[in-house]
Request: fold
Amino acid sequence: MKLTDIMGQEHIISLLTASLESGRISHAYLFFGPEGTGKTTTAMLFAMALNCERKGEDKDLPCGICSSCKRMKNFNYPDFQVIEPSGLSIKIDQIREVQREIGLKSYEGGWRIFLIKDAETMTIEAGNSLLKVLEEPTDGCVLILISHNYLEMLETIRSRCQLMEFRKMPSPVLEELLIEKYSCSPERALLLSGLADGAIGRALHLNEDDGFFSLREKVLNLLSDHMNPDILKALNFYEELEDSKDKDKSREVVLDILDIMKTWYRDLVVYSYCGDTLLLINQDRKYNIIEEAKVYSIDRLQEMIQKIDEVRYGIERAKGANLPLAIDRIFMELFSEKLGH
Ligand SMILES: [Zn+2]
Reply:
């Protein structure tokens, strides 16, 4: 894969390829924007391109096959370091290590590259330590920070980076791409683009994830049956899932459940407002949505969406979150009128 294969972010790719050609490389970049828009992939490709052995001969970088590209791709290149949260945050020790490393000279004679993922998770101490690195840039070193929540970062850090904003694609563009490049049927493309909310990485990930679609079936079956709500099934939902799922993935599964719930109530709001089924994400469920929309007021639907967001926020930020309890709570909340209180 080359930088120019990144789709939907032409404004960024042309800047990066121009700076590779001119050799004017910033000492720090901040790639920010929603999840699934290609930030990490672009950062990897840019890092590879910086040290690609074909640089200068080839314009379409990275080549992907030279020794440098191969070793970077396998994270087996001494001048390329990836820093990720340890637990839920990036700690000061990790940034101190960067500070120490950055003073060393390049092993391979090329660029030394530090890729910091989920940069918004840096603790205040880690952030202040990074700030010192940014205030005194070292020649031959490039820092690439990645964040899907960059407003949570220190303003002083943001202002010292070259900002690169990754954007979602308009739905019709993403749909067309899924049909043409990934052989999706038009129905599948419409559903994927709605579920992924314009983020191509998420759409492609979902396209390969059969588990997600069976989970979606289960969640929507429960939510759509307003005449005969199966509370017991809802309360056993998580336990039943866990038997068949990899435990390490529980958190991811719970976040998926919440996202699926949100698309459902979002569709009910959209339909209640304008009565247009073409705007729904869950196209294959439009008859259920028309029926269910009669049951709730728009205010109540907005409130449910807010509850889902609150639970999601809590789970994302607390490592020890009680996942079964979170799912029980949200089902109880969503079913409260059905339960008669
Ligand atoms: Zn190469």
In short: The first helix runs from residue 10 to 22. The chain has two domains: 3-165, 209-334. Residues 52-54, 62-63, 66, 68-69 surround zinc ion (CB under 6 Å). The CA atoms of residues 54 and 63 lie 7 Å apart.
